[in-house]
Amino acid sequence: MLDTDHYARLGLGEIRDKVMAGHRLSYDDGLRLFACPDITAIGALAHHVRTRLHGDRTYYVVNRQVNYTNICVNGCLFCAFQRERGQQGAFALTPDEMVARVMDDGGVPFSEVHIVGGCHPDLPLEWFEDVIRRIHAARPSIVVKAFTAVEIAHFAKLAGIDTEEVLRRLKAAGLSQLPGGGAEIFAPDVRQRICPRKIDADAWLRVAGEAHRLGIGTNCTMLFGHLESEADRVDHLCRLRAQQDETGGFTCFIPLPFLTENSLLKLPPERVGQHVGLDRLRTVAVSRLMLDNIAHIKAYWVMMGVKLAQVALHYGANDLDGTIVEEKIGHMAGSDAVQAMTIAQLEDMIRRSGFTPVRRDTHFNPVEEARA
Amino acid sequence: MSQHPVAGTQSPFMEAEAVRTIAAHVLSGGRIDRAGAETLYHEASLHTLAHLAHAVRLRRHPEPVVTYVADRNINYSNICVCACRFCAFYRAPGAEGGYVLSREELARKIDETLALGGTQILLQGGHHPDLPLHFYEDMIGWIRATYPAIHIHAFSPPEIVFFAEKEHLTIGEVIERLRAAGLDSIPGGGAEILVDEVRTKVSPNKCSAELWLAVMEEAHYQGLRTTATMMFGHEETHAHRLDHLFAVRDVQDRTGGFTAFIPWTFQPANTAIDRDPEPAPAYLRLLALSRIVLDNIDNIQASWVTMGPHVAQLALFYGANDFGSLMIEENVVAAAGVSFSLSRGEIHKIIRAAGFTPVQRTMDYTPVVPQPVEA
Q: Do residues B22 and B84 both lie within one domain?
């Protein structure tokens, strides 16, 4: 059995004891979990924690994404979505188009709109305040989850004000949650190589902390499977955990596997290919085990792939994101997942994977079945 | 369809007493009975199943090797009178798109297979209403004469039963004639679910479970090795899946002729069965259970063709010790909307990243000599 002897033989006896007792794992523990070849031993521990927190519940949200522009001044090497202004394929939605997308629910009353885009060179903060205000007025029941910490810092820079002021003004307009993007990997040397113009780790964490203090919950992410080491991943998780100890506002952690297609970031050949399934699951599992103060771990099916996301529910994840409707960033990077899933498909997939589906809102409160 | 509720989401450290008892029995090398299999399948957590299946696999194959075969699925015809509801590949006789491969097309496909380091062809087709047994004998005989080195893995049991009925011969006579023409082994296709209650619903015109098993038993007695498959996730219950495993195990106890068991999931696109494909955790549960139950079959194959490379890699920790085929050509699953494709280099990389050494094998699991050069 997966008993104490088995873990002792793997050199993980002490880690198993800590997990069972609910004690915090150290940075070194994280490295040892990554180094262990027995994926079942790691997955079992992560699943134990997942069931302790969430039983057999698997959450999903009825949501839609709106990517408002792909014009971006950052030019991150890993990004297949970004375009320069004037470049072929560049787009920017108008406020009317954004409101129209939110109004068009296709008969599925969604509870969350997820809005992210590039760091556009000249859309001012007022433009975003106006959009949020109009969306909020048009559909007051919908939670507006918008703008990563990177976008918030960009708005602040253009407006010549500090990020806290930006957050305050957007909150007043109707913003209630930040998505977790832009964290990428915090380790400075890798961050410098993959997204040199993006705000650094300290700035990203500072914006998240400011949002938390203003009562705006945020998600957090980690982009992995590019140039980073396993130590960089554990470091990333430890920094998020420390921030959460301080400000407590992270709702959900989303490990994002790097998709290589259409990316300028060229990886060494041993990192490119179809051999990364185990690595992705292991990363989900170690995240669950390290992040003892973040309640939810998401298997984001767009990036993870639908089948692996189903499996990840047994390796620490307790959320599948949602219906999505239209997604550009992952798909332009080569995701072969479908564009949208129906509620029935999500629920059927969750049930047949063994779990009880729970429709949630952005803050993970259960949502009643929508009136048809 | 009444499905047993899917269980197994509890913590693997909180298994019920009954599960722990059976787990200890499996780990000590014991055979499990039907009741034990039911308990594991319905109550054990996914990780406990994985742990047990991997232990059984390591006991049988302690060396850190994952094998695969390089072959090509050649479908000599898609014209078929069976009209199975799960099939997106067949064409009814006279329907547009029906074909029978010519000798020239066969030759080209085999030449390409050999050029890519392939060692065998998997030759299967529909139940063609007009082709006599002579056609198949001639086809095999011609391949054997033209390509003496290639292993001919051909004609699933339903085809053999179909030939026998059409020609008013016994199953034994058909196998003898095909063997004499050059047949090397029989693929385990057409097993679907080996329970007639299910077969009459999803493949009413295909041979019965009893006849499928009889073909394999006869082939084994005549010295041919075969594989066994199972296609699940359509209209069967969990109990039917267990019936299938135990039916295969019983034949194997008598003959020892199955080289491998290959479970895979029904792919619904373009078929007459409206159901989403089985989720990956359900595939892994069944895969692990098959490794545990089939204690008399040497090899269990992962199905990357239906599950994709990521889940297939994980399957190597759920009892699978073989990565199936390099699959130079595949038509049947592709017709059902699923088309993963992997090169030899990618298969090697997937196996290595899981901590194993890839070894190319033949149908009877002998390593190919020399091994292919790494891409």
A: no
Chain A: residue whose CA lies nearest to B8: A354
Chains A and B form CB pairs within 8 A to the count of 127
DSSP 8-state symbol, A23: P
B279 touches chain A (CB under 8 A): yes
Residue B1: pLDDT over 70: no
What is the interface pTM, i.e. ipTM, of the complex?
Answer: 0.93
Could you list the residue range(s) of the whole structural domain that residue B47 is in? 12-57
Q: How many CA atoms lie within 13 A of B372 on its CB side?
A: 24
Provide the pLDDT for residue A327.
65
Question: pLDDT per residue over B54-101, tens digit each?
Answer: 999 999 999 999 999 999 999 999 999 999 998 989 999 999 999 999
Q: Which residues of chain B does A279 touch, with a Cβ-Cβ cutoff of 8 Å?
A: 353
Structurally, how many domains does chain B consist of? Answer: 2
- Counting the structural domains of chain A, the total is 1
Q: Do A47 and B309 touch (CB under 8 A)?
A: no
Query: Residue B269 domain-assigned?
Result: yes
Contact B47 A279 (CB under 8 A): no
Q: What is the pLDDT of residue A241?
A: 98
**Whole-prediction pTM value?**
0.94
Q: Determine the Cα angle at B123 with ends B121 and B126, to 5°.
A: 160
Put simply, the answer to whether B6 touches A275 (Cβ < 8 Å) is no
Residue A304 domain-assigned?
Answer: yes
User: Does residue B279 have a pLDDT over 50?
Assistant: yes
The residue type of A85 is R
Q: Are residues B45 and B194 in the same domain?
A: no
- pLDDT, tens only, A204-251: 999 999 999 999 999 999 999 999 999 999 999 999 999 999 999 999
Closest approach of B337 to chain A, Cα-based (Å): 13
Taking CB atoms and an 8 Å cutoff, what residues of chain A touch B9?
A: 51, 56, 314, 354-355
Identify the H or E element spanning A255. strand A250-257
Q: Which domain holds residue A299?
A: 56-360
- Give the minimum alpha-carbon distance from B331 to chain A in angstroms, rounded to a whole number: 20
DSSP annotation of A371: P
Tokens representing B232 are 């699940």
Whichever domain contains A234, its CATH number is: 3.20.20.70
| Pair (B47, B133) in one structural domain | no
Q: Do A275 and B23 touch (CB under 8 A)?
A: no
ω into A269 cis (within 30 of 0): no
Q: What is the DSSP letter of A237?
A: H
Residues B41 and B175 in one domain: no
In a domain? residue A144: yes
Query: Are B37 and B117 contained in the same domain?
Result: no
Contact A353 B281 (CB under 8 A): yes
Residues of chain A with pLDDT under 70: 324-339, 369-372
Q: Does some domain include residue B7? A: no
Write the single-letter amino acid at B311. Answer: V
Question: In the predicted model, is pLDDT for residue B4 greater than 50?
Answer: no
CA distances B130 to A360, B24, B135, B345, Å, are 58, 55, 10, 42
Domain containing residue B184: CATH number:
3.20.20.70
Chain B contact set for A47 (CB, 8 A):
11-12, 45-47
Rounded-to-integer distance, Cα B82 and Cα A134, Å = 59
